[in-house]
Design a protein that fits this description.
Layout: H1 4-7, E1 8-19, E2 24-26, E3 30-31, E4 35-45, E5 51-59, E6 68-69, E7 76-78, E8 92-97, E9 103-111, E10 117-127, H2 129-137
Antiparallel strand pairs: 1-10, 2-9, 3-9, 4-8, 4-10, 5-6, 5-9, 7-8
């Protein structure tokens, strides 16, 4: 059956959390094996202050050894990628990542924060139908 359930798998890329200091918050490592297209949504809640810069890193190692920031033009498209943004409560920034290496993770760089914002992220993996069906039936 061709529908979103059979073609898209969503994974938590950044657990919901309060970012209340100037720091780099590191998301989960996501395996992009068998993915064809990947989109990420970063959501902000209870915003009070600060700026937030979304960055993506990739590696062929599941532990992200030797990770490199994705900076090439056209590899990441979306809302103010790699720019400091001042969100509002409820804002969602959306990105598309063109896969090069097997693993990817998001990092949120926060600045000028005292009480900060709640932040979370989800990655949607456009998967090969046969591969995704095999995983779900395992």
């Amino acid at each position: 059956m061709q529908n979103l359930y059979n073609c898209v798998e969503s994974k938590q890329a950044l657990k919901p959390q309060a970012i209340t200091t100037d720091t780099t918050t590191v998301g989960e490592t996501i395996d992009l094996a068998d993915s064809e297209a990947n989109s990420v949504a970063v959501a902000f809640g209870a915003y009070t202050d600060g700026t937030y810069q979304v960055k993506f890193f990739e590696s062929d190692d599941s532990g992200m050894s030797g990770e490199v920031e994705i900076t090439a033009t056209g590899r990441v498209t979306g809302d103010l990628y790699n720019s400091a943004v001042t969100p509002s409560t409820g804002d969602v920034l959306e990105y598309e990542i063109v896969k090069s290496l097997r693993y990817v993770r998001a990092k949120i760089v926060s600045a000028s924060t005292t009480s900060g914002s709640l932040v979370s992220a989800v990655i949607n993996l456009g998967r090969l139908r046969a591969s995704l069906a095999n995983e779900r039936n395992a």
